[in-house]
Automatic annotation (TrEMBL):
<keyword id="KW-0813">Transport</keyword>
<dbReference type="InterPro" id="IPR011012">
    <property type="entry name" value="Longin-like_dom_sf"/>
</dbReference>
<dbReference type="InterPro" id="IPR006722">
    <property type="entry name" value="Sedlin"/>
</dbReference>
<protein>
    <recommendedName>
        <fullName>Trafficking protein particle complex subunit 2-like protein</fullName>
    </recommendedName>
</protein>
<dbReference type="InterPro" id="IPR044760">
    <property type="entry name" value="TRAPPC2L"/>
</dbReference>
<keyword id="KW-0931">ER-Golgi transport</keyword>
<dbReference type="Pfam" id="PF04628">
    <property type="entry name" value="Sedlin_N"/>
</dbReference>
<dbReference type="GO" id="GO:0048471">
    <property type="term" value="C:perinuclear region of cytoplasm"/>
</dbReference>
<dbReference type="GO" id="GO:0006888">
    <property type="term" value="P:endoplasmic reticulum to Golgi vesicle-mediated transport"/>
</dbReference>
<comment type="similarity">
    <text>Belongs to the TRAPP small subunits family. Sedlin subfamily.</text>
</comment>
């Protein structure tokens, strides 16, 4: 299960970040943004050698003291998140680049997250 899920715009600003527990939210925001640098390094290292960019799995980005950071933890989870994100983008009332405030998207994310105890 995930403790933080983020959707980042191509310009590197968050469209959506949700974390559990919420008292560590600032720590997870920092982790998400530092992870972007590692993702960019790994993608540039892979370059054009990867035949199918849609199946991009970069593995462990880096371990922190408490967590391990993966860009796409598992394909099933990512596909579910991607399908929900696509639904948000296809909504004619959503302006691309605005923060995601969809209850349906939030519900999908909630189902993927560790439940607070």
């Amino acid at each position: 299960m995930a403790v933080c899920i983020a959707v980042i715009a191509k310009e590197n600003y968050p469209l959506y970040i949700r974390s559990v527990p919420t008292q560590n939210e600032l720590k997870f925001h920092y982790t998400v943004h530092t992870s972007l640098d590692v993702v960019e390094e790994k993608i540039s290292a892979v370059g054009k050698a990867m035949a199918d960019q849609r199946e991009l799995y970069l593995g462990l980005l880096y371990p922190t003291e408490d967590y391990k950071v993966y860009p796409f933890y598992c394909k099933i989870m990512f596909r579910k998140l991607h399908n929900s994100f696509t639904d948000v983008m296809c909504n004619p009332f959503y302006n691309p680049g605005d923060p995601i405030q969809s209850k349906a998207f939030d519900g999908i994310v909630s189902g993927m997250m560790v439940q607070p105890s």
